[in-house]
Amino acid sequence: MTVRCAARMTEPGLQSGSRKKMSACSYLNSGEKPWALIMAAGRGNRLAAATGGEYKQLLLWRGMPLYRHAALAMSRSASVAGAIFVFPENCLHAEEQRLRELDKIDSLGLLWRTTAGGDRRQDSVRNGLAALPPHTRYVLVHDAARPFVSPALIRRVCETLALGAEAVIPALPLTDTIKRVENNHVCATLFREQLVAAQTPQGFDAVLLSKAHTRSCERRLAVTDDAALMEEAGHSVRVIDGERKNVKITNPEDIALITEAPTPRPCVGMGQDVHRYDRYGGERSLTLGGVRLHGGPEVVAHSDGDVLLHALMDALLGCAGLGDIGLHFPDSEARFENISSALLLDEVLAMTRDSGIRPTHADMTIVAQTPRISPWREEIRNNVARLMNLSASCVNLKAGTEEGMGFTGRGEGIKAYAVVTALCIPQSNDRPGIKRHWQNLT
């Protein structure tokens, strides 16, 4: 809401002429700390569709309902004596039980009570005032849907009360031009220099606020905040600087403010593959990283026998915990006969994306006595980078021999190793159709 801008707070004397001025801090320490009403009884109609009908003030953020975040700020301010939680009547007992359970895990550090709200916000505030301990001098009224309020702002409201204010609100200057509109036509342009946007917590002399509510009930006044009742009753309302971050969760787009962005975690997968050379002149010319090595030996394989991409695919599947290529592309299925490993890699990348895996780096090693890899090294490296949609600087390729030892040393075959580094974006536990990509593959 917007209100006319009152004068900024200066330090006045205390209302009682017989009492000397005292600092705000010593006054707050004198046993007259305010109680806070945490207003959590609203229906949140503007947000209902986005929350599935759940009360917005009961939405969880960082494992707690929004109203408890507001209460924790009250506690951490060291300026509040206790809190009254005002809940919808139909969930009063459930939320009271939830508060007790949360207190067992991490104590709020404040005395607290609960009470049921009413049909309107001002009815709920009136119920909250009735639940205050006897002789409470000051009260704060705060929207539970403002979970980002800071302890510092709460303390400044309390200190302003302690310095003699009858009512105090935090507010921010408006930056948009404000128009008064009737029937879709502008009637007037208001001077924004005289307007502020009011926030909570709003602080009050508890007795004066109770009388203002009684007066509003008798006169059937409808207002959107308690400061308006104090204005109508003729009391001065002081204004202090609010906070930009003290946002109220009101519209569907505000849900993003309490939606935790998943934190990526690094993961590493390793893959290895071997293929024999075909001594009898087969039909599988040696292909490495999607590059055909003309004049190289042929390999024995079901697919195209690209040992490097096979190792790379196993490394990617390892990052996602999805087994190996034999599980997804068994050599017993005819449709994979002589298939391009680059096509298989594309499908593996789709699977890993479905699992929230984003590859960031690949390090590969080819072990072979023959052929020499160095003439094709950069072409293979660049092609793998292209297939994985990575910068070439994020792909490394090494090659070596086993100095005449083992089957590769005897020139009987080739093997490859791959290590993939990736980021894993947390996903739901269900893994959508691993095999779905193959319905059109022949």
Can you offer a commentary on this structure?
The structure is a single chain. The protein is α/β, with parallel strands linked by helices. The protein folds into two domains: 2-258, Spore Coat Polysaccharide Biosynthesis Protein SpsA, Chain A; 265-440, 2-C-methyl-D-erythritol 2,4-cyclodiphosphate synthase (60s Ribosomal Protein L30, Chain: A, 2-Layer Sandwich). Helix content is 28%, strand content 24%. It is built from 13 helices and 19 strands. The protein has helices spanning 24-28, 48-51, 66-76, 92-105, 121-130, 151-162, 206-219, 226-232, 307-320, 325-328, 341-354, 377-388, 406-409, and strands at 2-4, 35-39, 60-61, 64-65, 82-87, 111-116, 138-143, 167-173, 178-182, 185-190, 195-198, 202-205, 237-241, 265-276, 287-288, 291-292, 357-367, 395-400, 413-424. Strands 1, 2, 5, 6, 7, 8, 11, 12 and 13 form a nine-stranded mixed sheet that branches. Strands 14-19-17-18 form a four-stranded mixed sheet. A two-stranded antiparallel ribbon has the order 3-4. A hairpin with a 2-residue loop joins strand 9 and strand 10. Helix 7 crosses helix 8 and helix 9 runs parallel beside helix 11. It is elongated and about 100 Å long. The relative contact order is 0.11. Mean pLDDT is 85; it is low at 1-22 and 428-442.
